[in-house]
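Running this now, will post back.
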Amino acid sequence: MQNKFITMWLATTASALLCAGAYAAQEYPQKPIRVVTSAPGGGNDLVSRLVAPGLTASLGKQVIVDNRPSGVIPGQIVANAAADGYTLLLAGTDMWLNPLTQKSPYDPLKSFATIAIAASAPNVLDVNPTLGVNTVKELIALAKTKPGTLNYGSSTVGGVSHLAAELFNAMAGVKIVHIPYKGTGPGLTALIGNEIQVMFPNVAASLPHIKSGRIKGLAVTTAKRSQLLPDFPTVTESGLPGYTFATMYGVFAPRGTPAAVIRRLHQEFAAALNQQQVKERLAAAGLEVVASSPEELATAVKAEMTSLGKIIKDNNIRVE
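Update: finished.
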């Protein structure tokens, strides 16, 4: 008799929770939603502003883009916000890699609920044309014959282009020396001037200089060929099997946000991202729409923190 009562109670409780979750999703949202992101002008800001109008129209409440200084501040704000679906975070790869190179007020794996990978941006392995290599295989061979004599540039210490190059060094078994610059522009200027011979900038920054012949693009860093550069091989195809690297833009909510609200937000973000005008605007900026599941974002963040965490530790990469 007691077991029967417990079974009935559990069933009733589960049913009530499901109903509550469905009700929460139907009633959400009741007020404006804030999407916290980094400073204006970057990929985070672009993705946020392109999806905000579609979200506003479909949700029936204003979706406001809240720009904050780049770094750990946007993540800190959302990690400490109420878990009610009204404060969201749109952040790039740096959000979950920053805690590996500097002190951080949040834990990327424990402080957030994942919603979707909104978009991704491949990097391009670029070289100075005078280097005389046409494939990744040739670059690796040259670097092995001249250890420590080739240089690569990065836009910032611990940033995406820095880690992409160090991952390349580790997997290829070469030592191309790091020269940090204050931004992608100065780094590309150095590449064009042959102060450095290698760099891993994003597609949007690379393409004008590749078209002009001032730099040579060897391959894209993604696992599959990019829709933005369909004629470019991947690094794997061009000579380094297993290499993959991309800048991701993820959407997060505070940990503890109701599952029904997360599901609703995932559906709404996916719909907004797949609007044709949004896809075209993102492609023009070198980004590809992904609109993944929440689980895929969680898996990607964990995998990247594991693989690049080793690179960061082995090279003692720290941001002061």
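Confidence is low (pLDDT under 50) at residues 16-23. More later if anyone needs it.
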